[in-house]
Prior knowledge:
The protein is of the alpha/beta class and about 400 residues long. The chain folds into two domains: about 5-180, Flavin prenyltransferase-like (Rossmann fold, 3-Layer(aba) Sandwich); about 190-400, Rossmann fold, CATH 3.40.50. It has helices spanning about 15-30, 50-55, 75-80, 90-100, 105-110, 125-130, 130-140, 170-180, 215-225, 255-265, 305-315, 330-340, 380-400, and strands spanning about 5-10, 35-40, 85-90, 115-120, 145, 150-155, 160-165, 190-195, 200, 205, 230-235, 245-250, 270, 280, 300, 320-325, 345-350, 360-365, 365-370, 375, 380. The strands form six sheets. An eight-stranded mixed β-sheet has the order 12-11-8-13-16-17-19-20, with helices on both faces. Helix 1 (about 15-30) runs parallel beside helix 2, helix 4 crosses helix 7 and helix 9 packs across helix 13 (about 380-400).
Amino acid sequence: xxKDKNIVLGVTGGIAAYKAVEIASRLRKVGAKVHVVMTxxxxxxxxxxxxxEITGNPVTTTMWGEVANWNVxxxxxxxxxxxxxxxxxxxxxxxxxxxxxxDDMLTTMLLATKAPVYFAPAMxxxxxxxxxxxxxxxKLESLGWHQIEPDSGYLACGVSGAGRLPEPSAxxxxxxxxxxxxxxxxxxxVLVTAAGTYEPIDPVRYIGNRxxxxxxxxxxxxxxNRGAEVVLVSxxxxxxxxxxxxxxxxxxxxxxxxxxxxxxxxTDIVIKAAAVADYRVRNVAExxxxxxDEELVLVLDKNPDILKExxxxxxxxxxxxxxxxxxxxxxxxxQEKLQKKNLDMIVANDVSKPGAGFNTDTNLVxxxxxxxxxxxxxxxxxxxxxxxxxxxxxxxxxxxxxx
Length: 403
């Protein structure tokens, strides 16, 4: 629960800073202890006195104030915080945070804290959509920061578009959800597989697929955020694993099978998001195969079906979730896979659709349960889809435990 949690609210220099006053007020009303850090630019929009009266706590605006109790203030705030919220988050502060620049109290404290960080971008539409800003946002998210996505609407600059700070009630609800969710899977072990597998042809070539691992890594992060012990078994991927997750890196389908089976007996939930190669080369060359004029013939053997094997071994108190990436007959193939492999849920997506499938930040999925319920999600960020998947898997486990 959020009651008595220490929230450090970073307020930056945008016109939406006035909404931060209501955010601080709402946080205090639900029992949080709010500590405001303002940038110099923010003080041009809202006064320090306003936040001090609203929160009942001192407001920090500079690194050069008088030292109290011999605490180095940015370190003291960094340690004190149960959560840091930056609202509004300007393009300038997002850029500085993404690149490790610490030239004021807020950005210095951000480098020093280990608390979860939520940031709510608010700016002109063109600034938000600028590739530099988008790259900075993606970088922060890859480091484990949580974006509260901006709304669309009429902006102070006189245009209508994306970049509007969400309503304070929505932002506070998101922060409350964080503390509700953060212990909701404590004591559970979640095993996630991600990315594709590489099946060697020779020492320099392989058979593989287009999977980046983004969906599986997002699932691992969502489970970690809910307090679960998470094991991420990953094929080759350029992604940085989420902090606090135990990572097992490997290449081939056979290696993935061995790793998964070793972890499976004491696992509560398995989410198999990896795109495992169906076949491997029978005779892997010891040396690089030299190019010749004639055709190269490779004989392929079928790889073990890891998901099917897990379905056969599944205990009554385990939940097994699979994925079905198809280019046609999506529902038919997904439901067939759900039954044949003894799954509790399957996440089906048509990878031929724009913005869905491999190497994208978004996806378009339908989640089918064993009792034939279908939850169809709109096109959305993979991190948001991951949260839905993990929550549904948790609910399925609770149903099983209730008998």
